[in-house]
Structures are given as C-alpha cells and as structure tokens.
Write a structure and sequence with these properties.
Structural class: alpha/beta
Catalytic activity: pyruvate + phosphate + ATP = phosphoenolpyruvate + AMP + diphosphate + H(+)
Helix content: 40-55%
Active site: 450 (tele-phosphohistidine intermediate), 844 (proton donor)
Low-confidence stretches: none
EC number: 2.7.9.1
Family: Belongs to the PEP-utilizing enzyme family.
Radius of gyration: 33 Å
Bound molecules: phosphoenolpyruvate, magnesium ion
CATH topology of the domain at 541-630 and 670-881: TIM Barrel
Domain PEP-utilising enzyme C-terminal: 530-879
Oligomer: single chain
CATH class of the domain at 541-630 and 670-881: Alpha Beta
CATH superfamily of the domain at 541-630 and 670-881: Phosphoenolpyruvate-binding domains
Number of helices: 36
C-alpha cells in the first residue's frame, strides 16, 4: 500500500486519506506558499496499525524513503551531530479535533545534536530550550508521563531563580532542566530518553496513532458525532523555530473574525515562542496590528497570503504560522471554525463579495446554528455588577455557579445545578467539564486558545483571557484585581458576545433573531444575514413546514415564525385542570344519560378550544388529533386513591362517588399503558369521546366559516394498526359530519386521516391508504414501537451505555433511525401513495424539527414536516438546505 505521501503529492481533496492538516499542507505547498517541506503518513496506515496493534508492513521503508528525500532537500541529516535536521510529528485527522491528539516538536535532538544546533544557530540558549521542550513533549506524549511533573519542575526552576518569565531562564538553568527532565523520564517511564533520532521519530509516530483512542479523543468524537473508525494521519515536517529570539515568533490568525463574522483579518502573535505557547494561552499574545510594528515584512507577507488562501478556499481560513528570524513560514491552514453568528454573517458577506453564490451560502449554515442564535441573551436594562471583561470567545448568555475543576462541574451538573467552569486556561482534560457547564471562563489566552476553540465548536458560551481576574483553582476562587473574591458555588453570569463577567444572576431576554421572527424591526447585521438566508431557503424548499401546537398562543407564534399550518394539535391537554372532573364524570357515569351529560359539557369547551386555534391559523390547514393517551392518565393515582379510601373507611366516611371512582381506576389500570387502551382503541371502546371531539371540530369550523374566516380541519386518528380500526371510527365521524352539515345547513370542508406510528400500520399502509386522506408519521411512537424502547424510560436508564458502546451514534428519539424506522417510513410512503395517489404525507414526531431527519423526509418525498414552534425556522432552513 501507499502509506506515505510527500506534501507535493497531495491536495485538499484528499482529506480522508491525509487528514485535514496533511491535505491542506499539500494544498499550500502546491500554491507555492512558504511551507516547510515534509510528508504525511495516511489515515489508512493508522487504521491498519490500530487493527493489528503494530505498524503495517512496508511503512517503515516508505518512511525511510521520504525521510531520505527530506534530508536531501534540506541538506541536513535527522539528528546529525554537527547540523541536525529536526522535525515535528503531528496528528491530523479528517475532522479537526483541536488539542485532542498529540504533537511532538524538535524530534532529532539528543545530547550530541543539541551542541550542533547551538553551534549552527550560534545560540546555545535556544538549542537548550528546544531540547528541554522535546524532553517535555516526548515524556508527556510518547511516554505518558503526567505533564505536571514537567511543568512543576519548570516552575520550580523559575522560583529558585526568583523570576516569573520563561525567558529569564538562562542556558545553565536550561541545562539543569534538561537533566531534571531526563531524570523524570527515568523515574516515571523506567527508561532512558532515546538518543537515536529515528527511534524518537518512530515512537512519536506510534504515539500519534495511539492518541486516536485516548479518552478525551473518544469523548470529543462522540460529542461532535465524528465516526470512531477513521484514524488520524501523521505529518512529519522540517522544524522551523519561532523561539529563536525576538525576531522570531508564532501566531494564529483568521481571515475574518471567527466570533462576530466581521470582515477583516484577526489574529494573535507571540514573539520568541513556539506554536504551542500561543494555543495554550500561557503567555499573553499581541494583535496582528501590533505584529505590524514588530516585523512589518512578515506581517505584510502574512496578510497577502491570507488573501490568497481565502480566495482559494472561498471560505474563512484559520492559519498557524511561524516567523523564524524574520522569515515567514506557514504551518497549517484549514477552513476555520466559527460561531453561529459568524457563520451566517460570513456566508452572506461572501455571497455579496461574489466569492460564492447564495446556494453555497445556504449550505454553509445549518439549523443547529440557527437554533443557537435563538437562545436568549442578557437584558440590557438589567442592573449588572461587572467583575471583569475578557474576550468574547463564544457567544451566549450563561448563568451558573462558579466551579474551578472539571470533576466538580460534572458532579454538580449531574445534581441539576447550572455551573460555569472557571479556569486559568483550559487543557484537553477539561473537556468533560466544558461539556456539562453552561459556560466557560478563563483568565488567560486569546480567541484562539484551547478554551475558545473547543467552546465554539460545542456552541458553549465562553469568555477567555479575562486578565483582571486572578484565578486560583487550588483554592477554588477568583479575585477581581483590587476587589471582590468569588468562591466556588457563587453565582456568576458571563456574556460570550461581549466578554463581560458579572456578579450574580443577570436576567436574560429573547434573542434578536427571535424578536425578528416575532415581527419586530431589529436593526442588527446578524438579523439581516439570517433574514437573507431564510428567504433563500424558503425559495428553494419543497417541504412545507407546519407546527405542533395545541393552544392559540403557540399557533400564533408558530405562524409568525413561518409555519404553514398545524401538523399536530394534541387534544389531551384540553382535558386537564378543571376539566378533569368532567372526564371523571364521564368515566363513573352510571348510565348513558350520565355519560352524555358529561360529554355535552366537554363539547362546549372543546368547540371553543378549536375555534381559537382556527382563528390563529385562519386559511391554513389544522390537523387535530383525537384523544390519544390512556384514560387513567386523567384519573387519580391508584395508590393514593386506595390509601384515601382506606382512611375514609376507618373514619366511616366512605362516599359512593369515591367507591365508584376507585372501581373505575382499578378497571382502567394497566401494566403497560402505552401498549394499552389508548388512541383509536379508545375511540372504538368508548365511541362517545371521539364523536364528541369530531363534532366540536366540525362545529367550530362551521362557526369560523360563518364568521367570514377559513377553516381547514383535518381530523386525525392516532395509533391505528389495521385498516379495520380506521374504518370503524371513520364511519362514525363521517356520520357526525353529515349530521352537523345537515343541522347547520352548511358544507364543512374537512379531511379524515391517520397517524402511522405502529410498525403494523407502516407494513399495511397500502390498505390503510384506501381509507385515509392523509398520513402523518408519528415517529416518536414509531421509534418506540420499532425498537421496543419505552420512550419515557430508556433515555435516562441505559442510553448512555448504548451511545458509549456505539449501538447508535445519537438517540433514535432525537434523530431518526434511518435504517430501521426510516425504512418503515419509506415503505409506508411508497405503498400509501401507490394505493392512493392523492394521499398527503407529513411527519409530526419530534424528528420533524431535527436537521438530519428533515433531509431524510425530503428525500422520501413527504409533503411537510411539523415541529414545535421554536423549531419552525430551523425546519425551514433545513428544508431549504435539503434540496441543494
Ligand atoms: C408520535 O408518536 O410521534 C406523536 C407525534 O404522537 P405523541 O408524541 O403524542 O405520541
Ligand atoms: Mg404517538
């Protein structure tokens, strides 16, 4: 196999094979940009290594061939004692996993070549500093020694000398550290640091392969839904040094602001430093504007390259670079991660600039980002006590109790607390805490620090580099310079859009985007970008978007959000509260007259319910589902009632009504109520309920029409398994319709259809379609019934184990199980349409608002999706994207 590719052999389309970093290094090399030469070991080699537990045959030879070529190109040998070639060994998967996997720099240094490097560079301090960095990274990454052993020894050396800046350590101090670090390796790994450069390199390559399976990498992939089996590529590249004095440095930059989407370059630069110092946020960086003052030539060249890259990739690029003694080198580029706000704004800007068209712009945003922008933000008018300001690294308004380590964050979050994770800087270890926290606050590091990059990726609110806060994670507190101390458990609020940190709980208000959807004029660049892309999505989409709403208020909001009707009005809530009594009356009634009296009272109330909804949705279709849940949900709890009865018995106060009620509750009690007397089964066993509802719907529609409005009721029968069930209740509804039309002397347009939410219904959809004018897929029940998962129980009980073990990548209640449940949907849609070409098809389970599922529903040819009001804009956007 072809395991190793020279940079010149690759390009950006080979991401799966060369990883993102390798493919983009190749692309930049081919563009003629100043990239230090090197080669990439493929992800295929990593997969082979992980499968067999050893390097695949031929890999070592191919590495040797490419290393020979690299040595020739550079005119130096790896680890040569007089003038050593040094290389970096870096991971790089197809999907970027920032900070999750390993990198080792300065491979090739040993006790001899460090002297060669010192002579060649005429800088012994630099050579020693490079060696101690190698020992530190090699010890941590390759040998698995805890990083703190090295950083503690480093801090100790500074303490001993009475200095705080790394740069105040001189050659002798660094020589001492080199010996200390070698001792740490001996002590903790039980081996001598390998002096053979090739052995160093081979061990580093293996460590990168292995890092694919570290806990934090596995966790990150699960969070980001990155497949488990891709493996990482390994990039081996000639070293260039940002730590060769003040005319050297390292930086990270973006071609546009990744937080706001503002046009114009954005970046951080750090003099006399290697790249990891910038990303780790260990020392504070300067802006690109300041870099211009420091080194104008490199700065100008960098800006020119940024323009080239953006035009070439036609997207915002994220770039890592190094300046070595005044010479600029490009170390990495990729299409940059961005906040949801930046995604919308950049897409529209680029379309306006003519870099991309509107279809492309639409493909670059997604429903999850839009959902994110619909989160509330802090109330401008609220009183706030400012504690400090950092960088606005990832937007949102987060309120929670301050915690200072990831373990506490996890523990408290599990107890239902909202927490803000506060750290000096975050490391990949903190990932777990970042996932459960409402927000992340750090006192060091810029917008390109680990905390910022990871938080943006997760859509987590983040403020970083709040330098005026003195964070003491050991004590579990932070102190505002010259002011208040916040201890673990104190509530703070952080604004990821402004970088502000507030004391206590700040009230939140709806987002600008929501206010825009509500119909307000909102003069914000973000809102304009969202509006443009929504308009484009609406002009593209084939799927209609309806809403699940059972109050006039929800219906009204959904309509303002763009809903084109109601796809599911659940009627069961209309039987709760005071109306419960009427359901009780119905159930305990002694005779038909008693039942009818109870139903008549319900009829009046239901008619009013439906009338209000028809008003809110005037002119649009409204699907009303007849009562679905088991009746005992409307009755008192069996145990409580039994106890009450026993007490009443003792006191001799037992009442006739209570006795009847208990009898009814006992009669209706079921071990598996979701598989019991519910849905259409209720309609068959207690016909009066369904016919009362049908009458209320039709009378309300008639009234609306008489009042000059338009009502388009669609009466929907739940939980049908067989066409016979549907026929039985349909005949009764049709009779009611006929009666009402005769009584009122008025035609009432209406449809009668069914939900498809049982596997049997899906498998016999051809027959059912003969009796239905529409199907609505109830994918909640269909998922429950297909997998045999109780939807009320399993997510809390064993789903985390199932997700961990890879039974599915995401809960099938959240995103449709396309292979199983989806196959049933597809078959029912096909068979249903074949039997009845006029059949109208929709979906009203939770999946109707889920981006991935929406793409599937578009593909199988449904007519609409229906989702909760707040998901309506998300569904519109995704429906538009699904046809691109
Ligand atoms: C469904 O089962 O998908 C559905 C929409 O109905 P409910 O969630 O009310 O059972
Ligand atoms: Mg259902």
């Amino acid at each position: 196999s072809h395991w190793v590719f020279d940079f010149a052999e690759g390009d950006k389309s080979k991401k799966d094979l060369l990883g993102g970093k390798g493919a983009n290094l190749a692309e930049m090399s081919n563009l003629g940009l100043p990239v230090p030469p090197g080669f990439t070991i493929t992800t295929e080699a990593c997969r082979a290594y992980l499968a067999e537990g050893r390097e695949p045959d031929g890999l070592a030879d191919q590495v040797s061939e490419h290393l020979d070529k690299l040595e020739k190109d550079m005119g130096r040998g790896l680890g040569d004692a007089d003038d050593p070639l040094l290389v970096s060994v870096r991971s790089g998967a197809a999907f970027s996993m920032p900070g999750m996997m390993e990198t080792v720099l300065n491979i090739g240094l040993n006790d001899e070549s460090v002297a060669g490097l010192a002579r060649q560079s005429e800088d012994e301090r630099f050579a020693m500093d490079s060696y101690r960095r190698l020992l530190q990274m090699f010890g941590g990454t390759v040998l698995g020694i805890h990083g703190e052993h090295f950083s503690d020894a480093f801090d100790q050396a500074k303490d001993d000398k009475g200095v705080t800046d790394d740069l105040d350590l001189d050659v002798d101090d660094l020589k001492g550290l080199v010996e200390t670090f070698k001792g740490l390796i001996r002590e903790h790994a039980g081996i001598e640091f390998p002096q053979d450069p090739r052995e160093q390199m081979d061990l580093a390559i293996r460590a990168v392969f292995d890092s694919w399976n570290t806990d934090r990498a596995v966790l990150y992939r699960r969070q980001e839904r990155i497949p488990e089996d891709l493996g990482t590529a390994v990039n081996i590249q000639a070293m260039v040094f940002g730590n060769r004095g003040m005319s050297s440095g390292s930086g990270v930059c973006f071609t546009r602001d990744p937080a706001s989407g503002d046009q114009g370059e954005y970046g951080d630069y750090l003099q006399n430093a290697q790249g990891e110092d910038v990303v780790a946020g260990i020392r504070n960086t300067v802006s690109l504007a300041d870099m211009e003052q420091i080194d104008k030539t490199s700065h100008d060249e960098l800006l020119a390259i940024m323009k080239t890259l953006e035009a070439h990739y036609r997207d915002m690029c994220d770039i890592e670079f190094t300046v070595e003694q005044g010479k600029l080198w490009m170390l990495q580029t990729r299409v940059g991660k961005r906040t949801p706000e930046a995604a919308f704004r950049i897409a529209v800007h680029m379309a306006d600039e003519g870099l991309i068209d509107m279809d492309e712009a639409l493909s670059r945003v997604n429903g999850e980002q839009l959902a994110n922008l619909m989160f509330p933000r802090f109330d401008d008018k609220a009183e706030k006590k400012l504690l400090g300001v950092g960088m606005n690294a990832s937007p949102g308004a987060a309120v929670g109790k301050a915690v200072f380590d990831w373990a506490t964050a996890v523990e408290w979050a599990e107890q239902g607390e909202d927490v803000i994770l506060v750290r000096k800087e975050t490391t990949p270890e903190d990932l777990h805490g970042m996932m459960v926290a409402k927000g992340v606050l750090t006192s060091r590091g810029g917008k390109t620090s680990h905390a910022a990059v990871v938080a943006r990726g997760m859509g987590r609110t983040c403020v970083c580099g709040a330098e005026s806060l003195d964070v003491d994670t050991r004590e579990g507190e932070f102190t505002v310079r010259g002011g208040k101390t916040i201890v673990e458990g104190d509530v703070i609020s952080i604004d990821g859009s402004t970088g502000e940190v507030f004391d206590g709980e700040v009230p939140v208000v709806p987002s600008f985007v929501v206010r825009h959807f509500e119909g307000e004029e909102v003069d914000q660049p973000l809102v304009q970008a969202v509006a443009r892309l929504m308009e484009h999505a609406d002009s593209k989409r084939r799927l209609k978007v309806r809403t699940n709403a059972d109050t006039a208020e929800d219906a009204g909001r959904a309509r303002r959000f763009g809903a084109q009707g109601i796809g599911l009005c659940r009627t069961e809530h209309m039987f709760l509260g005071e109306r419960r009594q009427l359901v009780e009356n119905l159930i305990v009634a002694d005779d038909e007259r008693g039942q009818e009296a109870a139903l008549d009272e319900l009829l009046v109330l239901q008619r009013q319910d439906f009338l209000e909804i028809f008003e809110a949705m005037d002119g649009l279709p409204v699907t009303i589902r007849l009562i679905d849940p088991p009746l005992h949900e409307f009755l008192p709890d069996i145990t409580e009632l039994s106890v009450a009865m026993a007490v009443a018995d003792v006191r001799g106060q037992r009442k006739k009504r209570q006795r009847k009620l208990l009898a009814a509750v006992q009669r209706l009690h079921e071990s598996n109520p979701m598989l019991g007397l519910r849905g259409v089964r209720l309609g068959i066993v207690i016909p009066g309920l369904f016919t009362m509802q049908a009458r209320a719907i039709l009378e309300a529609a008639a009234e609306r029409i008489r009042g000059g409005g338009q009502a388009q009721p669609e009466i929907m029968i739940p939980l049908v398994a067989s066409v016979r069930e549907l026929d039985l209740v349909k005949a009764r509804i049709e009779k009611i319709a006929h009666d009402v039309e005769t009584e009122l002397g008025q035609e009432i347009p209406h449809k009668i259809g069914t939900m498809i939410e049982l596997p049997r219904a899906a498998m016999t959809a051809g027959e059912i379609a003969g009796s239905a004018e529409f199907f609505s897929f109830g994918t909640n029940d269909l998922t429950q019934m297909t997998w045999g998962f109780s939807r009320d129980d399993v997510e809390a009980s064993f789903f985390s184990t199932y997700l961990e073990q890879g039974v599915f990548p995401v809960s099938p209640f959240e995103s449709l199980d396309v292979d199983g449940v989806g196959a049933l949907v597809r078959r029912a849609a096909t068979d249903g349409r074949e039997a009845n070409p006029d059949l109208h098809l929709g979906v009203c389970g939770e999946h109707g608002g889920d981006p991935l599922s929406i793409h599937f529903f578009n593909e199988v040819g449904l007519d609409y999706v229906s989702c909760s009001p707040f998901r309506v804009p998300v569904a519109r956007l995704e429906a538009g994207r699904s046809v691109l």
